[in-house]
DNA repair exonuclease SbcCD nuclease subunit (Acetobacter lovaniensis), 382 residues
Amino acid sequence: MKIVHTSDWQIGRTFSFVDDDALGALQAERLNVIERIGMLARAQGAAHVLVAGDVYEHETPSGHTLRQPMERMRQFADISWHLIPGNHDAHTPQGVWTRLQRENAVPANVKLHLASAPVELDGAHNAWLLPAVLQRRHTLSDLTAYMDDAPTPEGALRIGVAHGSVVGFGNEEEAQNNPIAIDRAARAGLAYLALGDWHGFNRINDRTVYAGTPEVDRFGTGGNGGGECVVVAFDGPTAPPRLSTHRTGRFTWCKFENVVLTSSADIHALESRVRAIAPEQPHTILAWLEVGGMLGVDDLALYESLIDHRLRSALACLRLSGAPSLAAGADDLDMLGTSGPVRATAAALLEQVNAGGAEASVAQEALQRLFLLWGEVRRATP
């Protein structure tokens, strides 16, 4: 028997640092990935998909957002989808799960598990699902504790599914809310405990696993397994499950820290480094660059052209923190002519920069902008 384990879809999530076009693409992909999960289940021969909480980002999504994931799952009538609430979409009165039931929006192949009690998962394999259900965003009690004594038939394959933070894995402070005992699988005789809340793949032990979000949603999770789902194969109720991770995410999120630029070669190398992430699909890259260093006038113009303009237009999102400073001296003023108001202004700004003090950084930025604008005018003049 096989299942697919996934979590933290967070349908309806917003990203404040991207423009409208990128936001629309990111939100659409959180829905499109459901289809890739369904295709993965078919290809692997898994009849069941467990979604370990946070199907939705908010407790009050619009009606359209509420129904969209249901319709994506409806397309895979041969797959049973098993959903539990998470901390973002807890089973509160008049919350998303009540609305779905009231609107009759749940397809026959989608099972909402809204009570903490065993339910038969697959009769042919004597497999039983033990869901832990959050009825509020945060709880201080371990909702998986009931699994220890939850009755199932003799020889049953017991699979737990929950949303929260394991206690005893170095994150006790985080686990104050929605805690889960690290040894719950052993205590409750579980063949597998499918967890949600951690957005990257994390194998706590042989039987306790976070699947992570199937479409990466933040800088830094990619290296921890975000953008994947887990296929779990069972050989029996006591045999260790066999796990395999499968890439499902379309977008790649990368953060480049402490990038120091001092020459045109550095600028070209940075552009090449970012594009190499997905050379044939740069539009699937979200990059966050923390940039510093000092560049001459011409190299600063090159940086603005290659990085801030060309690379930004190629990627799904380019987020810049910091910027290279202008390394300008008296000799660079000749670029602005031998006299005139523009040169005089630049000379005054350069003098203020060299003098230091509270206004030096403002003067540096103004001088940098003056040189860049002058260069644009010079290139545009026939």
